[in-house]
Design a protein that fits this description.
Layout lengths: L24 E11 L5 H12 L9 H27 L8 H21 L3 E10 L3 H10 L2 E8 L6 H16 L6 E4 L7 H16 L7 E7 L3 H5 L4 H16 L6 E6 L12 H10 L4 E5 L8 H17 L4 E4 L7 H14 L6
Parallel strand pairs: 1-2, 1-3, 3-4, 5-6, 5-7, 7-8
Helix pairs in contact: 1-2, 3-11, 4-5, 6-8, 6-11, 9-10
């Protein structure tokens, strides 16, 4: 909950019955994908229904997709997805790891903004699906006096199914406001030097802790249908550039790093190579010791903690792989927070500096 305790004031020379307002401030609203409230059937069904009903995520005709979703997928998938969430759930906090990590990231970014701007900036987070909703946080920021809001989708790479749908929801929330704040959205930061540096440092630390250097680093990005690339989505190109910049920063050869894509869903062909298949091929080709990182995720979540560290690891080991190392997302690592805070500062120029 945002602090709305600042003294309320009326505009100069206003009548006594004029509504009072809090002092004008700037809001920084971080946005991540979302999380179910719990891993039980109905919590999972609500979350999956919202997620899979998003036309940015599944763009098939609703006349075809919705009967399939409501009558078949949502009767079965909440059980399997719920079991997957249960296996990674933060039971102590009663929330998913994504929620815990996003809270930690927000707290650290808030401290960085406080140090730089004092009480002129408010920092909070929202989720595209589930809670806290984008609409509720936009309203809280408006009530707290934010006449300007910087909206920051926490996706290094742009994709219609991530950055765009987060922005869509933000603008829908803005449509409900009688007095709309001035707004900016943050562009993808997939090639920002501080982001690449944070990634490189995390790889170097992980490798330093291993007894044997991995034969190859697999950079596994969340996939999208290849049709999206053909329709103009820049996601594939941005992922490839991140891998190249990371390779150059590390000073590695092409044979030491590889780009793959995970989380295929539905009958369409998606961006290739598929991570789950590629790790098996690597094992069969003699690469018995591999490391996997997930540069497209700003925080560990179901796709990294369960899919990579369980399903993809199992595929590698089943094909004869011996040593599988998952390198965690940047999460609330200090270098990552510095990178995100730098991006925020660059986007606040002209508003505060």
């Amino acid at each position: 909950m945002l602090d709305t305790s600042k003294a309320m004031t009326r505009p100069q020379h206003a009548a006594d019955d004029h509504p009072a307002f809090p002092p004008a401030r700037v809001g920084v609203l971080l946005a991540n994908l979302g999380t179910p409230d719990n891993y039980d059937y109905w919590s999972m069904r609500r979350y999956l229904n919202e997620f899979l009903s998003d036309r940015r995520v599944i763009d098939y005709s609703p006349w075809i997709w919705q009967p399939l979703l409501q009558l078949i997928i949502l009767t079965k998938r909440p059980f399997t997805s719920g079991a997957a969430y249960k296996s990674i759930w933060n039971h102590e906090a009663g929330e998913s790891p994504l929620m815990t990590i996003t809270k930690d990231q927000t707290a650290k970014i808030k401290a960085a903004m406080q140090e730089r701007y004092g009480d002129k900036v408010l920092v909070d987070f929202c989720m595209r699906y589930g809670n806290p909703s984008t609409k509720s946080k936009v309203r809280e920021m408006r009530d707290a006096g934010c006449q300007k809001i910087l909206f920051f989708p926490l996706y290094p790479h742009y994709a219609g199914a991530t950055s765009a749908t987060a922005n869509d929801e933000f603008f829908r929330a803005m449509m409900q406001e009688k007095w709309q704040p001035t707004t900016r959205t943050v562009e993808p930061y997939y090639q920002h030097p501080k982001y690449i540096e944070a990634l490189a440092q995390s790889i170097e630390r992980a490798y330093a802790d291993l007894e044997t250097r991995p034969d190859i680093l697999v950079c596994s990005y969340h996939g999208v249908p290849i049709r999206y690339l053909m329709e103009g989505d820049p996601y594939h190109c941005q992922c490839q550039k991140t891998t190249r910049l990371l390779k150059e920063r590390l000073g590695w050869a092409d044979t030491e790093i590889k780009t793959t894509f995970q989380s295929k869903f539905g009958p369409e062909e998606w961006l290739k190579p598929y991570t789950v298949e590629e790790v098996a091929r690597l094992a069969e080709a003699g690469k018995k010791n591999i490391a996997v990182c997930a540069p497209a995720f700003s925080a560990d979540c179901i796709e990294t903690l369960e899919e990579i560290n369980e399903e993809i690891k199992e595929s590698f080991e089943h094909a004869g792989g011996e040593h599988f190392t998952y390198i965690p997302c940047l999460n609330d690592d200090d270098a990552h927070i510095e990178a995100l805070s730098t991006v925020i500062g660059e986007n606040l120029q002209g508003w505060l500096d």
